[in-house]
Design goal:
Length: 319
DNA sequence: AAAAGATGCAACCGCTCCCCG
DNA sequence: CCGGGGAGCGGTTGCATCTTT
C-alpha cells in the first residue's frame, strides 16, 4: 500500500485520520458493515470505532472493501464499451454508469474515463508521423517527444469525430506497412466477436436501430453513438477511440460538422481516431505501434449534421 | 543503472440531495 | 415549510509504479 501522504491529511486534525487505510482499519470497517450493513457511516466515528469520517468509511467500503468488486483487473472491452455508451447518454454520472457494471465503482469508472480521455487527448495531439526514427515506443505510452501536455480543456472531452476510419487501406509508409497493416487489420475482426452484451439491458441509443436489449448483440456493437460529455451527449457522436469497421458499417456515421478541432491541425486530427479494445479483440489504440497510425486516414467527411434525438426521458434504471 | 516523465488509482474535498424532526 | 444532518456524487489531488531515455 502506499505510504501516507505528506500533503494531505497531515495531522492538523488529530481527531480524524486521513490517508491510506491500514488493514486493521479495514477490519474494523468490515466488521461494522457485517453488523450494521453498509450504512450508519457516521456512527463509526461517533462510536469511536475508527478515527475516520463517515464519508471516508463509506468511500473505503464502496471502493475497496465491497466483496463483489473486481479489484485489480482492467476494464474489459465490453465494460469499456458500456462505459462509453452510457457516458454518452448519462454524461458524467459515474455512479449511475457504475450500476451497469458489476464489480465496478463510480470511482473506477471515473478513473477509467479520465485515463481514457487523457490518452485520447494525447493521441489527438500527437503528430504521429513525426515519431522518432528507429524507435518503437508503444503507441500512447509515455514520453513522446512530440507530445503536448494534455490540457484540462473540457472541450477535449467531446470528440467530434464520427467517421469510421480506414485502416489498412493506405499504401502506407516506408516502415514495413505490412506489419502495421497486418497488426491493425488482423485484430479488428475480433471487435465484432465481442462477447454477448451485458446481462443488464442498456438504454443504448442507436442510430436507426434499437440496441440495448440483451439479445441484440449486433456485430455493430462498436458503432456507438456517443461522444458527448459533461452531461450533454454529442448528437450522433462516435468515440474516436472506438474502432468501427467501415465494411461492417457501410453507412457513414453521423458526424459533427467538421471544423477546427480544439485548434489542432490536421495531423492531429488524422492521428487519433480509432481504438481497439483489448481483451476481446486484443488490441487497443495505444497498443498499436506508431507505425500503425500511418495508415489512419480521414476520409472525406460528409457534411451532414445529424439531428439525433435526445435520450428518452425514461431511463431504465433497473439492473 | 539511473533519472525523468507518464500513468494509474486511492483518497480527499466540496457540493447537492434526501430524509427526518 | 424549514432547517439540520447524513449520505451520495463528481471533481481533483498527489503518490506509487511503470516506462522510456
Amino acid at each position: 500500500m502506499k505510504r501516507p501522504r505528506g500533503g494531505r491529511g497531515g495531522g492538523e486534525q488529530p481527531a480524524v485520520r486521513k490517508g491510506p487505510w491500514a488493514p486493521e482499519e479495514d477490519e474494523v470497517l468490515m466488521r461494522h458493515v457485517q453488523e450494521h450493513g453498509p450504512r450508519e457511516w457516521s456512527s463509526i466515528r461517533s462510536k469511536g470505532l475508527l478515527p475516520r469520517t463517515g464519508k471516508s468509511c463509506r468511500l473505503r467500503w464502496v471502493n475497496k472493501l465491497r466483496p463483489d468488486l473486481k479489484t485489480g483487473c482492467k476494464f474489459s472491452a465490453e465494460e469499456e464499451r458500456v462505459v462509453i455508451d452510457l457516458q454518452a447518454q448519462f454524461g458524467n454520472k459515474w455512479a449511475k454508469i457504475a450500476t451497469y457494471l458489476h464489480g465496478r465503482t463510480d470511482n473506477d469508472v471515473k478513473n477509467f474515463w479520465s485515463t481514457r480521455q487523457k490518452r485520447l487527448a494525447r493521441l489527438l495531439r500527437a503528430p504521429m508521423p513525426r515519431r522518432r526514427p528507429g524507435k518503437h515506443s508503444s503507441g500512447a505510452s509515455s514520453s513522446h517527444a512530440y507530445e503536448l501536455p494534455a490540457p484540462k480543456n473540457p472541450c477535449l472531452e467531446t470528440i467530434p469525430f464520427q467517421e469510421p476510419i480506414t485502416i489498412g487501406e493506405s499504401s502506407g509508409s516506408s516502415k514495413d506497412p505490412n506489419t502495421a497493416n497486418h497488426r491493425a487489420v488482423a485484430h479488428f475482426p475480433g471487435a465484432y466477436g465481442l462477447p454477448p452484451p451485458p446481462p443488464t439491458p442498456l438504454p443504448i441509443m442507436h442510430a436507426g436501430a434499437e440496441r440495448g436489449s440483451s439479445s441484440a448483440a449486433p456485430a455493430t456493437a462498436l458503432l456507438l453513438p456517443y461522444g458527448g460529455d459533461a452531461g450533454y451527449p454529442v448528437p450522433g457522436g462516435v468515440d474516436p477511440l472506438v474502432f468501427v469497421d467501415p465494411a461492417a458499417s457501410p453507412e457513414p456515421l453521423e458526424v459533427v460538422p467538421p471544423g477546427p478541432f480544439f485548434g489542432l491541425d490536421d495531423d492531429y486530427v488524422h492521428a487519433g481516431r480509432a481504438t481497439m479494445h483489448r481483451d476481446v479483440c486484443g488490441v487497443r489504440f495505444d497498443d498499436l505501434p506508431p507505425e500503425a497510425f500511418d495508415f489512419f486516414e480521414l476520409p472525406n467527411l460528409p457534411a451532414w449534421p445529424p439531428p439525433f434525438p435526445p435520450p428518452p426521458p425514461s431511463q431504465p434504471d433497473q439492473l
